Amino acid sequence: MEIKNKNILITGSAKRIGKEIALYLGKEGANIVIHYKTSQKEAREVVNTLQSYGVQAIALQADLEKTQEAINLAQEAIKHFGHIDVLVNNASIYYPVELEKITEEDLDRFYNVHVKSVFFLSRELGKTMYKRKKGKIINISDYSALRPYKDYTAYTISKGAMLTLTRAFAKEFAPYVLVNAILPGPIVPPPEYEDIETPLKKTLIKRWAGEQEIAKAVEFLIKSDFVTGSFIPVEGGRLIC
User: Fold this and answer.
1) Topology of the domain comprising 7-240
2) pTM of the model
3) Residues 104-137: pLDDT tens digits?
4) Which of 11, 90, 93, 165 is least surrounded by Cβ atoms within 10 Å, i.e. has the fewest?
């Protein structure tokens, strides 16, 4: 699938990795739906930048911890552009919780954002893609879904569920809609993260990647028409280090 003139919805795209994906694809000529939860100002700035590239762009707000808002987001995106060619499920929450301190609320928050919203967005948009006999769904998971680390159990098991969801949807929507996941490693330090050196000791490449590396992987999965149900590691060799 060529990127130019395609309509792409990217969740969590007002900042950081999602923003870079949006700008990268916008430069390639894609029309972009910027999703945000609370970062309205930043979302508008991304939309303005995209429009300066000569492409169409809008910002839509939704709290992906609430199922109906995720469904509404899909419907509003379709209403504006007529159809969506590519869905990038990038929105994420990330924080540590010791195993004995994990609450039901923690599990629900991670599950709602990383599994339920991805499920309903993928189903709503995937079925319209299937009818049109073409489309791409790309889930931004995490390398830790395959190699969990201490104090992030609630986070990693939800990202692991996202991988199962990826392969299940790849089967459900075959052969027309290709569904894949990307497994980021140390891309950019989380906000207010003080120890930026220790994570790099656990990779082969020994550096933070930068958001554009994920954007490149998204580009590959959009352009490739013979990859589905796959997990693409972008983690600097951390899975084998």
Assistant:
1) Rossmann fold (3.40.50)
2) 0.96
3) 999 999 999 999 999 999 999 999 999 999 999 9
4) 93
